[in-house]
Amino acid sequence: MPNSTPKLRTSLPAAAHAAVELVLKLFGYYLIPIGIGIVSLIALIFFHDEYRVAGEVPLAMHVSVQDDTRQLTPAEALARTAPQPLINTHETHLSEAPVWFAFEPMPRSGEQVIEFPSRHSLDVACWDGATLAPLGSASRAGAAGAVEAAKAGFVLRASPLPRQLLCRSGLSGPARLSVLQWPAEQFDKSVEQYHRKSGLLDGGMIVLALFVLITALINRQPLYVLFAGWLILNLRVGALSAGWDIQWLGQTIPSDWLLRSRSVTITLYGIATLTLYQALLKDHLAEMRYVLPMRVMQWLCMPMLAAAILLPYRMYLPLMWVIVVCCFAMMTIGLFKIIVESRNRVAAWFAASFALTFLASMAEVAAAALGLRELLGIINSVTAALASSLLAALAVAEQMRSETEKRQEAQEELEHAYKAMPVGLFTLDMYGHFLSVNPALQKMLGIHAFVAGRTAWRQFFTESSWTELHEQVHAKAEAEMELTSRDGSQRFLVSATLARSRIEGVLQDTTEKHKATEQLRFMADNDPLTKVYNRRGLEKEFVAAAASLAVGRPMALAYVDLDRFKLINDLFGHAAGDEVLRQVCERIGTMLAGGQQIGRVGGDEFVIVMPETAIPLASIICRGIVDRLGNTPYRVGDKAFHVRGSVGLIEVVPDMAMKDAVSTADRACREAKTGAGDGLVVYERGADAFRQRAAELDLVARLSGPNATDNLLLEMQPIMSLKHPEESLNFEVLLRMRESDGRVVPAGPVIAAAEKSGRASVIDRWVLSTTLAWIAEHADQLCNTRFVCMNLSGASLNDERFVQDTFDILGRYVHVASRLCLEITESVALHDLDNTRRFIDQARNFGVKVALDDFGAGYTSFSYLKELPADVLKIDGNFIVNINAHPANVAIVEAIVSLAVNLGMKTIAEWAEDAATVQTLHEIGVDYVQGWVVARSQPPERILEARSSASFIKDEDLLELLRELAAPAVPHLASVTRLH
What we know:
Mean pLDDT: 82
Number of strands: 37
Low-confidence stretches: 373-378, 972-980
Largest sheet: 8 strands, mixed, barrel
Helix content: 40-55%
Distance between the termini: 133 Å
Radius of gyration: 60 Å
Structural class: alpha+beta
Shape: elongated
């Protein structure tokens, strides 16, 4: 209760003020306008008319039209008019011939004046009918005597008035000649009324037009500019009908301009009306497909405009009437269709305006053409101008209302979109204060209570970000920048522009996108399993680290390969293997420091980039890695695994590409896996491995060029028969390359370089064609040669073009092709069994023999032998070297020989290095032997000098063995079909 009294005291003045404000609004909005309307209506009906006039009397007259070009004298004219009947009015029907008329004023008391009211009259001259004395003359240019221009026509002021008057008048257009007698004072009052009405019409229409024009300029609406011009032209058309068009804004229009101004005014009014019609109703006209009639009306405006400028007024009027009737008819039809189909209120108001204008125009035409002047008493251009202006204004107002509603709807939709927009929208002043924000931005920035002009940018972002944004929007049209919140937990992208001294912008929360981008960037450079670098990331690190080599700083690179890691995946699954790989990376990572980076380049292979690390230190680190990897078991669940690693470490030299460094380190790692260096092999600068790598790259470059087969040559290694050593001269063709310094490069590096450069098929093609050409050339000297072996690389065998070229070459040397024995490596043959079988079948059609090379190595499956129609099995040399020291090798070779015998194949054992090995192979039943104990590779000319492969033997033990074998003995295995 204690506080209720102050509240009551506060509320009473506020309520009283609200009541007063309501009363004032009631008066201002309703009572005052209604009161003005009621008082105006009462004044028009009941109040005294200050300008009411009376007393005019129409006079009858005798009229004669001068129909010849000869100038009549007043006496002749009087004589012509006298016999004519008395009439009150005379219609010229567009004739411009001078009209003579005689009349007698009525005798009335007081001063009297004679008015000639025709607005189409151009000049008037009067004479005393009795004496033919001139009383005066006047035209639109000036007056003399008692005749002067008044209102729309002329007036005769003569006191006293003669008993009879003779007058001549020149008229233009649809003129109606009449004579009125006025008391002088009443006529003067009518003149005041005339000017008052014309002033009210001019002033009202001009004020309305100015209001519409100013509204158009403020709102930037071309339609209202058009309407303002149309109102002015409508005023002039009304003035033309009332006879007020002889002046403009109180100034008299020069007589020379008067008729031309009427033509131009009417034409421009028609053009403006058509344009306004199209502007207000263009959408509906397009929907009704009323485009063609509109185009017809637009084209009709062109001859009408030309006629207004070029033709005389009397010739212009008929053409204008025809065009106006046609255009108004088409426009009315269009309005009617719009009203019927769309119920458009703009069209309804415009139709009413057109109807009035159309009726007024028809009344003018009928009055002029038929003399029905009484129609002008009902409707004329003055009333039509006022009424049509009012109705057109209502149409424009309706259009404005419709557009306002559309703008309000658009504004509401814009406000809804502004509020519903998922991105943040804001407006800032030049001091960094938010003037407006949408809900999305409030949610992004956590704004709970927004106050326009007080919530500042600096509350959420750093001062430097505001400075940068301010500078950017002033420097370029659209500024875009990334931002971070003050606490660094969020990231944003802002796009802003400067508009009306304000910063309008869009703020997007890119936190998740940034995280996703960072994750993608991480995934692009890192291994998804172990999170260490992948090959791409390592390349970046390598390039960055290699830059220090130019200033003399050391750099090392290590290649790490896990030993027998595949067993973990095979036995315990990939999940266990993946966990081991993660732990391996963690262990390696603990050994690295100072910018040293690890990356995964294979399933269980890793590369370590060591910038600014000398080889001695790198060797210590890598030794620690080897020990760290192998000394402690890896625990995955309840299981423990022992994994060892091998490391190849190299010193990186300037200008060394990463692929070369990795390849060299991989070579060192493979060497370490063989047991050398106890798991670590180091290649320092200048090591043989670097020279070998350089030589390999040189070979690759040379073989990639257009002269790949230059400097290639062939050597031949004899293959001796163990059953008849002295009877056959068989050999294998071996590839060599002669360097520029005379050194001979063996086949291994050449083939490896050819395969890396993709030129293996080119080399094989050259070897095949050269070998067959050499055999064909020396066929007579090779009478003891049963077969000549030649290796085919796997890349060539899978090259369809090479296969086809092979058959083409065999076709050219078909007479010696039967001596050729193509060696196909077992692993290559089994890679694509169908393709290999197809090749063997086609090659054997030329008589070529086929040998499976390196048989027993790799993943041999004896079941494949029945699928491959080979002639020879060439036993892998790893089983032959030191065969007597490994009983298992003897058993394996025996099995291969037994299998070959049962399949009808011959066997060749390679890599035989001593007589004891040859003796064992003979006892097992091997058919042929190849190796250094028989002979090393020989130049082709040495082969031609020999009688048999045994001719090259220099080993005394082997020669003794051959002599023993030459003695009669029971063979170990049954003979099979000889290889021919």
